[in-house]
Amino acid sequence: MASFSSNIRTVEEIFKDYSARRAGIVRALTDDVDEFYGLCDPEKENLCLYGYPNETWEVNLPAEEVPPELPEPALGINFARDGMNRRDWLSLIAVHSDCWLLSVSFYLGAQLNRNERMRLFSLVNDLPTVFEVVTERKPVRDKPNADSGNKSRGSTKRYSDGQAKSNPKLAEESYEEDEDEHSETLADEFWIGCDICERWYHGKCVKITPAKAENIKQYKCPSCMKRGRQ
């Protein structure tokens, strides 16, 4: 892998990469959703949803190299497929995909200066999030012109309130939102770490609640349990 310093990119290049990866993920969760759903077999090991710079998408196992060349998307998106309402499951994947897209962009932009980072975020923020598109909270818009950006393992558990903050500008938009329908999707942000592979999993995806986790002395993720049976 080439040294990081040799891969310095401009704001425009990073935003183009972000837009293309986002387009692939949006396609997977909307136009190609039936194909995506079929690929997320809960009987398989940890699967991830990847978006690529050519606007395509793929469901695949995570990268094996450590550390990976780029930040990795959420692991184990397939485990909760049959245990959740389909729309809520897709919404949850959309939220995690938004986080991944931002992490990749700011990883690529690690050597940007303060003003360039602000410009990059401004460009990204001009597009609806994947979550907004999947839940139909915003219409899909054409991507903005690049110039517009000028204007612990073991018993340790992670918690966060996961509540989205309201944006006053949304009131000016010409669309209606259902504020309650997907509130549970964002509110449940309990994670649990596997004691074997040391990976972290979203509680809902592996069907573990905070109460249930308190009684688990050693947690094994679904993949490690399958490997133990082989």
From TrEMBL:
Region (Disordered): 138-182
Entry's Gene Ontology cellular component terms: nucleus
Record flagged with keyword DNA-binding: no
Membership in a protein family: Belongs to the Alfin family.
Alphabetized PANTHER family for the sequence: CPG BINDING PROTEIN, PHD FINGER PROTEIN ALFIN-LIKE 2
Subunit structure: Interacts with H3K4me3 and to a lesser extent with H3K4me2.
Entry remark concerning the domains of this protein: The PHD-type zinc finger mediates the binding to H3K4me3.
Annotated protein name in UniProt: PHD finger protein ALFIN-LIKE
